[in-house]
Amino acid sequence: MAKRIDVKDLDIFYGDFKAVEGVTMSVEPRSVTAFIGPSGCGKSTVLRTLNRMHEVIPGGRVEGKVLLDDQDLYAPTVDPVAVRRTVGMVFQRPNPFPTMSIKDNVAAGLKLNGVRNAKILDEVVERSLRGANLWNEVKDRLNKPGAGLSGGQQQRLCIARAIAVEPQVLLMDEPCSALDPISTLAIEELVHALKDRFTVVIVTHNMQQAARVSDRTAFFNLKATGQPGHLVEIDDTQTIFSNPTVSATEDYISGRFG
Amino acid sequence: MSSTGASVADETPSPGGRDPLSGDGAATGRLGDRIFAGATVGAGLLVVVVVVLVGIFLLAQALPALRVDQASFFTSTQWHTGSTLAFGIAGLLWATVATSIVALLVAVPFSVAIALFLTQYAPRWLSRPAAGLIDLLAAVPSIVYGLWGGYIVAGKWAPIQDGVSTVLGWIPLFAKVDGITGGSTLFFVGLVLAVMILPIITALSREIFDQTPTTHKEGAYALGATKWEMIRTAVLPFGKAGVISASMLGLGRALGETIAVMMILSGLPQGAPWTWSLFNGGATFASKIASDASEFSGGLSTGAYIAAGLVLFVLTFVVNAIARVIIDRRKAFTE
């Protein structure tokens, strides 16, 4: 059920401002692809175009193609709501719905899809929480508010919420940047496990994290402030970190950037 | 900075020298600080004292009249303040609460809908000026609403109400009352009150909806929520307590509204018994006190009105206390 993504000549705009230009890349199914690059280079922006979250921001629009197994996500007949049910997302800051219990948080996506059967909901909640390595920690307090968990648990709750609707692709936008090292480790182990079932794309500021969790790495950069960001190169993570083609990549990875 | 470039930080603490950390009283003892602290404490206490004094005054003035009251104060609907005192607040309480509830039931859904439109649907060039306009509406004096309701809308409302009571008249709440025209009933007063409290509820709801964290909204969108589903999963739960407390503030205004109610609401028909009907006339606490104010002669009969005022005082107090409790509870779960 994991699908491949092909991005072709993608330009991304905020109103009249071109934020990212000319991205062409492929993401293999059942793999982890990391987006790295300096702040403001557009890596999160590119990520948000993969499930059409970019256009939630007023003035957000794209030109070009994003293909999910040959289906263009930006074709006029495609419903962005349906895209987001197929391509799930986890955000930088854990954002469980504060008024909902742990269980209701995980079941939220299913309920939006019209699933009302209590038995099915219970099964999916357990399966998703197990999938997010959170079940053992919360199984005795499923009806307590999700906001009462620690930051790392909340982020795993958000992952459980995202995988509960069985997406084809899971996008993660700096999922560990608000977490301590131990919670980060838990999420990274989870990412490893998730790629057996999902295509995972993860944005990270942490290059060690990219090296640890990803199969392929894409390096984004921008020529100057106010210029659009662009994809410098994408390759196997090992190649990017040991023998990158472009010198800018090597400068960034080795810390000689700027 | 001195001409030598030395600063306090350069001074090394030495026996007999000035320790940079030793208190010179600057932080806690300055005169200005003490005056300001005293002024704020005084202002705070003054409010409490005034409220308590008002309560005591009302109680003290009401008690003598209550002692000689020939009717049951809480359950009677009669109001005789002539040579024999026989008065009860049941009719006033019903009229006050019924008009306010009608106002809330009509105003809250509209307010929430308008606030959602302004914050979630309207483009920015429209939502900014529209929000300002709503804030302005909240400041329109109630006599304007009274004039508008009583002299412009009342006539148009009458046939609608007659139609409703023809169909639903078998329900006591909507029974037709002879001698009362459509434009002067409790229900119609409720509608005018709804228009009056709509701006304040809308303005507060709009503010709270606007504060919905983007992360909550995006969390809902990322699960494949439509706009309405996003509002239901993120915006409404976040704003719920705020809307409730805004409604309570509106309710407080409706309960105490005087002049518009007085202008519109007709009294009970001469000699007719009191009924539950919303299509009847009557008087609220505030309108009753205001309309009879010219006849106050001091003494016991005035005490009857003050007793009514005391009940209104307590009623608004309770409503505001409930609003406060809800606001505090909201704080607990957003942290």
TrEMBL record, chain A:
PANTHER family: ABC TRANSPORTER I FAMILY MEMBER 17. SUPFAM superfamilies: P-loop containing nucleoside triphosphate hydrolases. GO terms for cellular component: membrane. It comes from the Bacteria. It holds the Pfam family ABC_tran. This is Phosphate transporter subunit ATP-binding component of ABC superfamily (Phosphate-transporting ATPase). InterPro entries: AAA+_ATPase, ABC_transporter-like_ATP-bd, ABC_transporter-like_CS, P-loop_NTPase, PstB-like. NCBIfam families: 3a0107s01c2. CDD domains: ABC_PstB_phosphate_transporter. Residues 5-247 form the ABC transporter domain. GO terms for molecular function: ATP binding; ATP hydrolysis activity; phosphate transmembrane transporter activity. GO terms for biological process: phosphate ion transmembrane transport. Keywords: ATP-binding, Nucleotide-binding, Translocase, Transport.
UniProtKB/TrEMBL annotation, chain B:
GO terms for cellular component: plasma membrane. InterPro entries: MetI-like, MetI-like_sf, Phosphate_PstC, Phosphate_Transport_Permease. Pfam families: BPD_transp_1 (PF00528). It is a multi-pass membrane protein. Residues 1-23 are annotated as: Disordered. This is Phosphate transport system permease protein. Its main location: membrane. PROSITE patterns: ABC_TM1. Belongs to the binding-protein-dependent transport system permease family. CysTW subfamily. It is found in: Cell membrane. NCBIfam families: phosphate_pstC (TIGR02138). Residues 93-323 form the ABC transmembrane type-1 domain. SUPFAM superfamilies: MetI-like (SSF161098). It comes from Nostocoides japonicum T1-X7. Part of the binding-protein-dependent transport system for phosphate; probably responsible for the translocation of the substrate across the membrane.
